[in-house]
Amino acid sequence: MSHPRETGTRLDPRWDANGLITAIATNATSGELLMVAHMNADALAATLATGEAHYWSRSRSELWHKGATSGHIQRVIEMRIDCDQDALWLKVEPAGPACHTGQRSCFYRRVEEGGLILDVNVNGN
Amino acid sequence: MSHPRETGTRLDPRWDANGLITAIATNATSGELLMVAHMNADALAATLATGEAHYWSRSRSELWHKGATSGHIQRVIEMRIDCDQDALWLKVEPAGPACHTGQRSCFYRRVEEGGLILDVNVNGN
Q1: Which residue of B has its CA nearest to A35?
Q2: Neighboring chain A residues of B8 at a CB cutoff of 8 Å
C-alpha cells in the first residue's frame, strides 16, 4: 500500500481514457447487486451534491440522473471507492427497478454451463 | 427487452474494444463487495471450466488465476450476467483477502464530503 492513491484520504479518481470510472450500485438494505454503470467527473460531483445517483450514459453521451424520467431515483446511503480509485460502490435506496428492462436488478440471469437461466430472485447472498 | 442479448439464454458477452468485460466479485455469504476486475474470453472460459475466478490482469497483460500465488483462491458459487452482457457478477467463497493491499475488500474507504475515510468494516448491507 505504497501509492498515496491507495492509502490516502483524498478522493482522486483514476479516470480511464474516456474520463470514466466504473460505478456499482447495490441495494443498501438487501445487498443485492443492482447495476453497473459509469461516472465522469460531472456525474460524481452531481451525485455527491444531491445524494442521488448520477451516471454518465455512454449510449446517449450525456449526464444521466437515474430516475429523472422513470421516477426510479437511487438515494445514496453510502459511497465507497476501491484501492486504485477506478471503481465506486454506491449503496442505494432505489425507488423502483434499476434495470431498463423493468427487472429490479440488471443481473436477472444466472450463467450455467451451456447458457443463461432466467432467475429474477437475485439476492446479495 | 427486445434485443436477444438481453432476453435470450445464450451467453454472448459484449466484449469492449480491448476484448474485456467487467467482473464483480462479492462474498457469497456476507454479500460484501470484494473487488472489481475484468475478464477476457480466456478468463471467462477458465472460470467456467475450473469453478475458480480467473481474471485478465490489465496491468500485467496476462491471464490471472486469482490466488494462484497468494493462495487466496475465489471459489465461484454463482455467476450472473447483466442485461446487456457487459458485466459479470461472481458470488465467491474467498480463501483470503481479495485486495492486494491485504484488505478483505478493495472498498476499504468511504467517500465523504471532503475526502475518504478508512473504514474496513465493509458490509454488503
Answers
A1: B82
A2: 116
Smallest CA–CA distance from A89 into chain B, residue: B107
> CB neighbours of B69 closer than 8 A, spacing ≥ 6?
none
Give the contacts of B67 (CB within 8 A, at least 6 positions apart): B52, B53, B73, B74, B95, B96
pTM for the model stands at 0.94
What are φ and ψ of residue B50, in 5° steps?
Answer: -105, -20
Phi, psi of B42 (to 5 degrees): -65, -40
A2-55 residue pLDDT tens: 688 999 999 999 999 999 999 999 999 999 999 999 999 999 999 999 999 999
> Three cell numbers at A123?
439476492
Give the gap in angstroms from C-alpha A99 to the nearest C-alpha of chain B.
8
Instruction: For residue A96, count other CB atoms closer than 10 A to its CB.
Output: 13
Complex-level ipTM:
0.94
The alpha carbon of residue B65 is apart from the nearest alpha carbon of chain A, in Å, by: 19
User: Which of B111, B117, B120, B122 to mutate to probe the A interface, most A CBs <10 Å?
Assistant: B111
Q: What domains can you pick out in chain B, each with its CATH number?
A: 4-100 (3.10.20.810)
Partner-chain residue, chosen from B30, B79, B115, that has the shortest CB–CB distance to A11:
B115
